[in-house]
Amino acid sequence: MKKGKFFIKRFTISFKKNAFGKLSSLTRFAGLLVVLFILLSFYSYRSQPFNFFKIEIKQTEIKDFITPAELPVGILLISRSDKTSIKPTAIDSSSQRFLLIGDSMLETLRYRLNDYCKKNKHTMNAVIWYSSSTLWYGNCDTISYFVNKFNPTYVILVIGANELFIRDIRSRDKFVKNILRQVGSRKYFWIGPPNWKEDTGINNLILRNVGPRRYYPSKKLTYERNRDGAHPTRKSGYMWMDSVASFIMKKSMYPVLLNYPDIPEIKGPPTIMLGPHPPKGL
To answer: What is the dihedral of CA 30, 32, 33, 34, to 10 degrees?
Structure first.
């Protein structure tokens, strides 16, 4: 009997030691994971990545998960309790005054958009700021100036091609927001850059700010390029604008009448060209 009690006592002590020992190890391991997550989270908010012996330590995307630049507009259109799909907006057939503004990528787009304007009884003005970016447009009132000058009913932005390889792309978020503030309450649409290589996040940054129904993912198309390897040829640019026009009329948040033009216009649209000079202070 005594031997039986002794055996049970020894078994109980041994079980407690092993069980709590394993539990302690698991607790320490979980604690290390929590600390690692916190460190990686703080590092993701750093403006520039660390370099260790000339090797860049890549940042995680925890920041974008915790504090996204802005929730996609498409998600905000319906409540979570509403399981119905978003109904397409009726096409506005009234005459529009387009302002096409951005960087040099709109060179060919402006001619084709002008064809659509003549076909569908719209008017347009184009503004090309060579070498510009969200950094440039977001640090001055250029967009506000031309919005006031031309009083457009629809603004089409073509900005981002000069920022495909920016390392700290998160720093451009405030400039994108300032651009949208200058557009104001007008109908607008953002044509994404026609990537020739994978970007570091400019397309996703624009998409998060404007939503999927006010943005065209130009990088998904295939282009014939000019000698510089970046700008689409006129023929390819026309096809690009055809795709954008179809998207605006059928899938965008603000669909307007953009039927396919029968005959191209000989005369180009009114265009203002700004030299490749940054705004004062940059």
So the answer is: 90
Q: Which amino acid is at 201?
A: G
As a 3-state breakdown, the chain gives helix, strand, coil percent values, each rounded to 5, of 45, 15, 40
Q: For the segment 259-273, what is each residue's pLDDT rounded down to a tens digit?
A: 999 998 989 999 999
pTM for the predicted model, two decimal places = 0.72
Distance of CA 154 to the CA centre of its chain: 20
CB 138 within 8 A of CB 174: yes
> In the beta sheet, which residues pair with residue 272?
127
**DSSP H or E segment with residue 158:** strand 154-158
Contacts of 50 (CB under 8 A, 6+ apart): 43, 56, 57
| Alpha carbons 281 and 81: distance in angstroms, whole number | 48
Instruction: Report the largest interatomic distance among the alpha carbons of the chain, rounded to a whole angstrom.
Output: 110
User: Which pairing describes strands 97-102 and 123-129: parallel, antiparallel, or unpaired?
Assistant: parallel
Write the pLDDT tens digit of every residue in 1-45.
555 555 555 555 555 555 555 556 767 777 777 777 777 776 665
Residues 148 and 253 in one domain: yes
Classify residue 209: in a domain, yes or no.
Answer: yes
- Expressed as residue numbers, the domain containing 12 is 2-56
CA pair distance 187, 134, nearest whole angstrom: 19
Q: Do 213 and 140 share a domain, yes or no?
A: yes
Q: Which two tokens stand for residue 141?
A: 């009132």
Q: Which helix (H) or strand (E) holds 114?
A: helix 106-120
Closest Cα to residue 62, out of 135, 212, 206, 170? 170
What is the C-alpha separation between 109 and 179, in angstroms, rounded?
A: 20
Residue 252 phi, psi (nearest 5)? -80, 170
